[in-house]
Amino acid sequence: MTTEDDGHGATDKTLCVLPWIHLCASIDGVYGRCCVDGAMYHNELYDQKDEPEFTLNDDAIGCSPGSRYAKDNPGRVLGLEEAFNSPNMKRTRLAMLRGERVDACSYCYFREDHGAQSYRQSINRRFQHEFDLDALAARTEEDGTVEEFPYFLDIRFGNTCNLRCVMCTYPVSSSWGAKQRPSWSSAVIDPYRDDEELWRTLRENAHLIRRLYFAGGEPFMQPGHFALLELLVETGNAGNVDVVYNSNLTVSAERAIKSFPHFKSVGIGASCDGVGEVFERIRVGGKWETFLSNVRRLRTEVELWLQVSPQRDNLWDLRNLLEFARTEELDIDLANVVQWPAEMSVANLPEEEKVRGTEELTELIAWCAELGWDKPAAHLTSLRSFMTSLDPLNLVEEST
Ligand SMILES: C[S@@+](CC[C@H](N)C(=O)[O-])C[C@H]1O[C@@H](n2cnc3c(N)ncnc32)[C@H](O)[C@@H]1O
Ligand code: SF4
Description:
alpha/beta; 9 strands; binds S-adenosylmethionine
């Protein structure tokens, strides 16, 4: 099969490499095309007073046997390999090859339409040398099947987390769950721990895994995350695998650190939404000093950068964050602009604050440009355009 246009014109605007190489599995056991697949999240179910039916969205890829969804969607309970070639995944590949936009990917298209960088764009850039679009198309059968095991996995081994960040929620964090959850649901959710088929599949295909992304919940608190690292070391396959994390780095990572030298590479995006008091105000329950000492410890072991989620509550602290990054000589990534909850988004600031915010960001962009600090300059430029170009009523629903 070939792409619709030779120069990748139409597909350039729609196609994402992830449905060909990757599978995501959410904290509550729903498979996704990626972690911002709009069809994967069912957060509204957790707002119900009485336990609702856990009906999957029509466009969702499917669910794992250990998930709450399994009972109400018996025809859509899938293992990893089946999920990678489920009917919705196959339809997605074919639609992308035709140059069509896919509903489940509206989070990315929305950002692109409003001047922000999308996951689709950054991941396509990241893999541009490894996966040629025509080669992907050639590996796609007429019905959309790709006869391979996903090269890249993002399995969220449950929601256990020690923090309650202001822009996060239940079911993503068990600490949010401890404070605010329906009586019919537990604070901690972990659909994968006892999923024997999952662990058998991971063991059988360990030699085919090349990349892992861990988030959550807090990965350094997830038993399943440690078990997967240990499985790859034990089977002699860790040396093939690049591991990437997002972590709050307010808990000990010592157990994982022991296995890091076995892996091809390890990178940690240390989530940092402010300096000192602002960090503690946004990342509720986290201590700045603990974070700082973990950053300094981990950076000696792995590649580490600061991962910022620009939002209403840290717009005025971005200067401090940038200065902190320079002092510590750390890379900083500001691309993950908070879009949801809508009231946390910079797009919903009152007009006069947007004017001030524009001035502040313009100064910061000029400062970064003077320093030749291109990546933050580009991210701040996207943030400025996202802030000013949005009609707040159009914000799309999202989770992380
Ligand atoms: C959900 S967290 C999970 C991993 C880990 N607990 C952490 O905080 O890094 C993954 C990333 O999503 C970010 N995040 C949390 N809530 C968000 C939201 N509403 N919108 C965009 N990003 C968000 C976090 O700051 C973090 O960098
Ligand atoms: S640390 Fe991560 S998972 Fe935990 S509450 Fe904060 S953003 Fe959510």
